[in-house]
Amino acid sequence: MSTPPTRSRVFAALVGGAATALYYATPDLIASRTARGWAKAAITAVSFAASAPDLLAARVAAREVRDEVHPAEVFRSLPARGKAALVGVAATALAGSVAGVRAGERWAFRRGQARAAAGKRWPHAGPALLYGALASTLWLAPPPPSTTDAGSEDRSPA
Asked: Which regions span the lipid bilayer (predicted)?
């Protein structure tokens, strides 16, 4: 059974959802590409600041896991071929992630531009509201149980 989200998590979800909607609606609000870039940077900074408490909590949780696993020792124990493969997989995952985000951003913008060409009013804002609602919903999704939580469940027969 999961616990309800904390106030900071709800706040981050609301700010993140609003920031996402505003971010993707900027082409409808700001004509200048340069100004839009600066506005998106400011929106991202506000969203990041609102999520700081959750990011710090995640950092503490990651530190606890790292203290148990010692990834540096595991990496050092790998043969050179294993290290190269791990670095290659990580670099490929990072490049794929960046390419995927870039492709998604371009798709969303082009879709809005096509809606504008079709005569839709506020062509970017409509989908932006959907993206914002999705962002808030995903932010509020319960985190997976940690390894320490799994061992503390009551397993006695009823």
From this structure: 6-25
- Six token digits for residue 150: 């799994």
DSSP calls for 41-101:
HHHHHHHHHHTHHHHHHHHHHHHHHHHHH-HHHHHHHS-HHHHHHHHHHHHHHHHHHHHHH
Distances (CA, A) of 46 to 5, 49, 50, 84, 148: 21, 5, 6, 38, 33
For residue 136, the surrounding DSSP H or E stretch is helix 125-140
* pLDDT in single tens digits along all 158 residues of the chain: 567 888 888 999 999 999 999 999 999 999 999 999 999 999 999 999 998 888 888 888 778 777 777 778 888 899 999 999 999 999 999 999 999 999 999 999 999 999 999 999 999 999 999 999 999 999 898 877 766 555 545 444 44
CB 46 within 8 A of CB 19: yes
CB atoms within 10 A of CB 135: 20
What angle (nearest 5°) sits at the alpha carbon of residue 124, between those of residues 26 and 127? 120
